């Protein structure tokens, strides 16, 4: 940290000279100088990557620091590299050696334009004719104010734009127009869903099992490498989200865990959307120092950022400055300061460069200045940029287009395109059965630790069964008890089904985790649904057995083991159908508030048409009987339970006459006289459970296909626009 502080002091002392028009050439003690003799060259062509593979050996010394020896790692000469030994990594076993083979991967985008209908008020073009490149071993940052097109450009480069977007231009990987195969790149969202009930090591290990083929030892090695790379050794065995009264990981560590998940594949290119999102200054600096060490291993880093401190800004290699989709500058960080100075906006003393850049190009500052005009008259200007922001943006854009930096970028792009490197190959995926097993076991582990959504729910089910059982206890088996017993069965099925809505937050979290993993091709729709179904069966079976036993014996139903088993099986299928319904609604709504509102409404409608408040045959035929009563799973569950209890029984009426159970129920509930009809109701419940999950599969698959079609459109635009 002392080294970083001293470097910051050098920057601040040099910024004073840059702020004066008489001295626009940086002083020699600026800590991210170019090569000697190249100060007046906008970009050094020696930054182009060496396509030969690079052997990197990291050997841990006795002092705990890392000494990195690289053969031909391509790095940017624009920044003085941080000494990796000055920032100790988490301790590893003594003498441990991590050997890696890293091939350089460059990324070039040429005349890249992105249009999204309705995204902008005056124009659909979110990114306009952007040019740039990213080289191995460097950090390229896309900076700009809010709604400037930062995330859109990043997603366009990674091929992850929404279906409403259209892309024009060319993207080259290692000099070739081709899409990046699976495993060659990683993408970290601004807000990533992490599994809070797992430790850092467990979370990364399960991610490795989903992503990587091969042996377990290889996957464990990849996990440990990712933990070391992101300096997570001290947090490896801590729960991400905490447990009970234990605190979870801080925001900075959570972001590093999200990045480490993508590092498990050891990608050539890593895209990160806002790595400093919701981080304080210390966490942001630690994050960027960690990313700098990662870049030094040969990985190409491209990320967006809104604002940074002086120390963080000094770690960047190149900057792409955007405003309203227009590229105001692309090049090295020092050249950006010089560009602003040449345009008439030198960076003042004691001001962060990123603050100065955003002040000059962020139109929101015009409103602030207008609001504080009277205050400015007494206390001076709020900023050194004494010009309307729109004029400043046009000035910076015109200055850049006519500058040597823009010409140098075009020359570098041509050089990188003409020099084709090795084609990136897919690293393979985990097998289908293995993914199902991993997701099933991971979900079971999550259920065992999520006490709020699972164990508390079990307690509530037991409590509800006891309450209903004691209210309706002592009914006896007389003819007069039939109506009350029907009410008890209806209340038990309806209220327990309604209580299943408590599992909506857990289902919604699972769908979000699936969406995050599917976006990075770690999982699949069918794999997710099968794993979710298999993992939910033990928990639902535990709920059905415990609740059924309590209710069955408190109510005093028929004392036969086969009837008890059917009651339990029927209630289990009822819960399975309800879980599918909750999953379907959560997938559609994607919001916990609306999911609960919709589920409560659906359950109330199903309860009204289930045949208890009014016999099913007497319901109004439009809507209530057809189709609502046939869609309500309550109907088939209650019918099956009543048929299980009363078919084959009889009640004495006087001394001579008797009524069958079917006849006794005719005035209370519609059931079938067939002995095997209860199994038909059970089959219908099973088909409904399957049907709900099929609907979820279709819905999720439709979303995936839209994403895949967009990627295909992106590749087609690359091949048809500006052909080589």
UniProtKB/TrEMBL annotation:
Compositional bias segments (type: Low complexity): 13-26, 76-87
Any Pfam family hit: ABC2_membrane
UniProtKB keywords: ATP-binding, Membrane, Nucleotide-binding, Transmembrane, Transmembrane helix, Transport
Presence of the UniProt keyword Magnesium in the record: no
Annotated membrane topology: Multi-pass membrane protein
Example of a GO cellular component annotation carried by this entry: membrane
Subcellular location: Membrane
SMART domains assigned to the protein according to its UniProt record, in alphabetical order: AAA
Gene3D superfamilies associated with the record: P-loop containing nucleotide triphosphate hydrolases
GO MF term set: ABC-type transporter activity; ATP binding; ATP hydrolysis activity
Superkingdom of the organism of origin: Eukaryota
SUPFAM superfamilies: P-loop containing nucleoside triphosphate hydrolases (SSF52540)
Family per similarity comment: Belongs to the ABC transporter superfamily. ABCG family. Eye pigment precursor importer (TC 3.A.1.204) subfamily.
This protein's name: ABC transporter G family member 3
Organism: Sesamum alatum
